[in-house]
């Protein structure tokens, strides 16, 4: 007899990202910051994690790490074009500088890569966050 209990929601691709841990000095502060920028909500704690559900089956699970410095990571979010301006507005309302480039040399500007729009900004732990309306064209 075959066990089919776990086959109904499985991805049809080889691998589908389900969640990733994001280290933070203050998990609530960082989770609420990202949720505010993206227009999402912070979920209920799950063990030591505080999740932000991205709405596509993937969660960022914020994990408080206080025993050593947080290593900066890069997180890129493909967002709907019609929500991009609202995200920029929320960054401005929070007093967060955004940049057109990943090296943060073009403040207060957005890029137009691949026919879309994009911007980079730091979260409270120095993670380099990116919002973009078109995926990168890869060779």
From TrEMBL:
UniProt keyword annotation of Oxidoreductase present: yes
Stretch forming the signal peptide: none
Keyword Lyase: yes
Segments forming domain VOC: 16-134
Keywords carried by this UniProt record: Dioxygenase, Lyase, Oxidoreductase
Gene Ontology molecular function: dioxygenase activity; lyase activity
Pfam family, one: Glyoxalase
SUPFAM superfamilies noted in UniProt: Glyoxalase/Bleomycin resistance protein/Dihydroxybiphenyl dioxygenase
Protein's name according to its UniProt entry: Catechol 2,3-dioxygenase-like lactoylglutathione lyase family enzyme
Species of the source: Streptomyces luteogriseus
Organism lineage: Bacteria, Bacillati, Actinomycetota, Actinomycetes, Kitasatosporales
């Amino acid at each position: 007899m075959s066990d089919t209990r776990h086959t109904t929601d499985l991805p049809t691709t080889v691998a589908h990202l389900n969640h990733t841990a994001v280290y933070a000095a203050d998990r609530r502060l960082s989770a609420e910051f990202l949720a505010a920028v993206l227009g999402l909500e912070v979920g209920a704690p799950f063990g030591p994690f505080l999740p932000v559900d991205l709405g596509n089956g993937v969660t960022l699970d914020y994990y408080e790490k206080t025993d050593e410095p947080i290593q900066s990571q890069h997180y890129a979010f493909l967002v709907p074009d019609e929500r991009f301006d609202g995200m920029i507005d929320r960054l401005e309302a929070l007093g967060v500088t955004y940049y057109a480039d990943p090296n943060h040399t073009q403040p207060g500007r957005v890029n137009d890569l691949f026919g879309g729009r994009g911007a980079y900004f730091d979260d409270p732990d120095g993670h380099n966050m990116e919002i973009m309306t078109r995926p990168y064209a890869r060779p």
